[in-house]
Amino acid sequence: MLSNEKLVTAGSKLLIVIIALLFLFPFYWMLSSSFKEMSVAYQIPPQLFPAKPIISNYMQLLETQAARWMMNSIAVSLVTTFLVVIISSMAAYALAKVPFRAGKYIFALFVGSMTLPSAALLIPQFKMAIGLQLVNTYGGLIIPALAAPYMIFLLKQFMMTIPKEMLESAKIDGCSEPGIYWRIMMPLAKPGLGAIAIFTFVSSWNDYIWQLLIIKDSTMMTLPLGVKSLINVEAVNWGLIMAGSVLASMPVLIVFISFQKYFVQGLTVGAVKG
């Protein structure tokens, strides 16, 4: 006979597996549908697995500007992630380890700005983009995303866990403030940097609304906008749409899997500061 504790453990694991399968099913359906003909996509009852898999949806996708859209998305997301990591880490280091009188007020301002919904910022951001002539430019896609108060907040909390004695020892040895930031703080903050890198990359990659507002030229489109442009009102080829969706999902999965270790450490280490 199994003990109550073992039954609870087995039941918990079974529940986790069921929930995981429920979350994974939409991704499986997207992948399987990308290998179906359009007539099969409308079939009732639906085919859970394509009886006659085809790759023509991906071949048709390559005939569009999908490669250009993919390169636009990768370039914008990588540049945005790099700049956000650098800017946020410098701001977080100053707030966490450099004592100055206005520090707590500036940090409170960052925290307060996190309460503003992103939709409320669209109109003023768009008006500023028009005034700065950033419409339909890569700068218009990247610059607004550089203001990342949540990333600064998360990284500042993580840097607070790093002992100040290490920094004081470096100062005694003659290391400058920029040297401490680059040579000591940045290597020690890799888990936190990995976490905000994932958040920023995914946010930039999926920022559909702002990209829709700022981009007018088809050659400037990112992959989410490009996949949306494939929808024809008269006849929607869902196999083609699903193929584009699979292509749009792959970089996000690769980034998350690559930084998963840092992501978990960045969220947990900063949360257990005693």
Can you give keywords for this protein?
274 residues, 15 helices, mainly alpha
Nutshell version of this structure?
The protein is mainly α and 274 residues long. The protein is 70% helix and 0% strand.
Percent of residues in helices: over 70%
Poorly predicted ranges: none
Order of helices and strands: HHHHHHHHHHHHHHH
Sheet having the most strands: none
Taking all Cα atoms into account, the compactness measure Rg is 23 Å
The proportion of strand residues reads under 5%
Number of strands: 0
User: What is the rounded distance between the termini?
Assistant: 42 Å
* Shape by Cα distribution: globular
- What is the number of helices? 15
Report on this model:
The chain has 274 residues and is mainly alpha-helical. It is 70% helix and 0% strand. The chain has 15 helices and no strands. Helix 4 (66-97) runs antiparallel to helix 11 (190-205), helix 4 (66-97) packs antiparallel against helix 13 and helix 8 runs antiparallel to helix 11. It is globular and about 70 Å long.
Please write out the topology:
Elements: H1 4-33, H2 38-41, H3 56-62, H4 66-97, H5 103-113, H6 122-131, H7 138-142, H8 149-159, H9 164-172, H10 177-188, H11 190-205, H12 208-214, H13 223-229, H14 238-258, H15 260-269
Helix pairs in contact: 1-14, 3-14, 4-8, 4-11, 4-13, 5-8, 8-11, 9-10, 11-15, 13-14
